[in-house]
Design a protein that fits this description.
Layout (H helix, E strand, L loop, with lengths): L3 H4 L5 E6 L5 H17 L4 E5 L28 E5 L11 H6 L2 E6 L11 E4 L6 H9 L6 H14 L10 H11 L5 H10 L3 H12 L2 E3 L4 E6 L1 H7 L9 H6 L6 E9 L2 E8 L5 H7 L3 E2 L3 E7 L2 H23 L2
Parallel strand pairs: 1-2, 1-3, 3-4, 4-5, 7-8
Antiparallel strand pairs: 6-7, 8-9, 9-11, 10-11
Bound molecules: manganese (II) ion (MN).
Length: 325
């Protein structure tokens, strides 16, 4: 791993982006870089390009400076792409990515092949892109605002320090960031756990309609478009549903589908210990991690679930064959 400072040598303009539908880690990453640049390199023009983040992330320093559209014909010396494993996930900003002098990808997605930037800092075993950025930046260059962004990203991608991607190093970084005087309780409550009334209702509905299969080792739930409309919810309101399904006792794999438009489903997958759900997501053109992945699929929900089930069954069989049972 090189230091961010090395990548910034000779750079006078920098653009930063992350994946579409930005989550806490994606938003935290780009705003951490923005704040880092303000503190350490005010002489370098830095622009952040990102779809508008969810309102629970609006407290992050610099959130108001995000550009949601590309400024025409601007050519940057360096373009940083954070928390993103494929170019199609930065679609609106891809022209500036292509025209830039150099490209640097900082990511932790297992599905990242490291094949679209000259420089790659890609570490699939690291909890979050924010954790990688902490190491790239170095503690001595990280001010309070940068720390707040990095901490938020780590909190979100580790499910508040509980997913298996959380390492001792993750906790040490979190401790170091806390030393900057962050209100960590508010960050966790307000950006991660807090739910609106309709979010709670749709969560309840998804749990009520959930179905166990494969002898209780898998669970799925589907929210059709009509139900989305009834509650007045969008994809942004679905956070936490898949996690609650995953927590069901005895379940190895959780599948959650919601219909974004007629016949088009956003599919989220989670596993607990041994099913690699990123393999399933990649087969559908999506991506993610071994224990958390997602993709978009068209067709009937039952047909999609049947296909996913067949892939899970194959992995279950392979795992059983390997363990000799
Ligand atoms: Mn991430």
């Amino acid at each position: 791993m090189k230091k961010l400072e090395e990548y910034l040598k000779g750079v006078s303009s920098l653009a930063v982006t992350a994946h579409i539908n930005p989550d806490g880690d994606a938003t935290g990453s780009v705003l951490a870089v923005l704040n880092y640049m303000k503190d350490n390199h005010p002489e370098i023009q830095t622009n952040v390009y990102l779809q508008e983040p969810e309102k629970e992330l609006a407290f992050l320093p610099g959130c108001g400076e995000i550009h949601t559209e590309l400024s025409a014909d601007k050519v940057y010396d360096l373009f940083m792409i954070c928390d993103c494993s494929t170019l199609d996930r930065i679609d609106p900003f891809a022209p500036a990515y292509r025209s830039a002098g150099r490209r640097l990808c900082v990511d932790h997605h297992k599905s990242n092949a490291g094949d679209f930037a000259e420089d790659n800092e890609v570490y699939p075993d690291v909890s979050s892109t924010c954790e990688i950025l902490y190491d790239l930046m170095g503690t001595e260059h990280i001010g309070r605002n940068t720390a707040e962004c990095l901490y938020t990203g780590i909190v979100h991608d580790t499910g508040v320090f509980k997913y298996s991607c959380t390492s001792r190093h993750t906790m040490e970084i979190a401790g170091d960031l806390m030393d900057r005087g962050l209100d960590t309780t508010s960050i966790i409550d307000n950006s991660f756990y807090s739910k609106t009334y309709v979010q709670n209702q749709i969560l309840g509905r998804a749990l009520l309609e959930s179905v166990l299969f494969f002898n209780g080792r898998c669970i799925f739930s589907v929210i059709p478009e009509s139900v989305m409309k009834f509650y007045g919810v969008t994809g942004a309101d679905m956070g936490g549903v898949i996690e609650q399904l995953r927590l069901t006792e005895g379940v190895e794999v959780a599948i959650f589908l919601y219909e974004t438009q007629t016949g088009v489903y956003k599919v989220s997958l989670r596993s607990k210990k041994f099913i690699d759900v990123s393999k399933i997501a990649v087969a559908y053109g999506g991506g993610g991690h071994a224990r958390a992945a997602g993709f978009t699929a068209s067709g009937r929900s039952r047909a999609i679930i049947n296909e996913i089930s067949a892939m899970i069954a194959q992995q279950l069989e392979d795992a059983q064959a390997q363990s000799g049972t």
